[in-house]
Amino acid sequence: MLKQAILSIAALAGLGLVGYASGATIYPVNDGFESPDVSANAGSQSNSYAYANQSGGNGPFNTSAPGVGWTFTSGGVGIASNGSAFGVAGATNLNNNSGAGNTTSQYGQAGLLQGGDGSLTANISQSITLPAGTTSATLNFDDEGRNNSGPNGINVYLDGVQVGGTLTPISNTSFNTETVSLGAISGAHTIAFAGKNPNGGDNTSFIDNVRIIAVPEPASFGILGLGALSLLARRRRV
After folding, report:
1. Which residue in 216, 201, 67, 195 sits closest to 131, CA to CA?
2. What is the pTM of this model?
């Protein structure tokens, strides 16, 4: 009976450990850049893009409007839609944090990074909160280069410090996932994306579906399960 109870505890604890190992997915507000809808009142689909802080396409837009979430700093950053003059293709029409896409447009949207020197002079950023006890955090996002001008480099920042090297989208016609390790962090932190194009020109990259995978420390129940297995091993040796 004791052996059976110990095995049951260990089995349940094992399930708990598997759940913790997979981590929790945390979505920033407007993780898919579906707000605001840059297609609304654009006049044509080719104009369905907007710089946040300067004219161009359907810009500038109200960066403090409800649901926008992101902070857009300086020029060369904004939002572009599938089918716009920027040639975006395959951006999803969904914000995972809210489970909703554009309410007035069928077209998916993505964050836009054009030009820049790789610093935070021009960037897209947002504060996120990770659970206490997070032992490993990974930033995932999808990116794509501009089809008619080529991609822009992308630098990722955590709390104002660059993390890893410059990332360059591998395709100008489809979105692919980038993975950046943020280390063992918890609580409130700011992530930022900055464009890097030292050669000038209209090189542009697009980002979509931003999410953070946070893996917390093992649950105490998992530790209890390991203790149960240890007890069983000792009984077998007696």
Report:
1. 216
2. 0.82
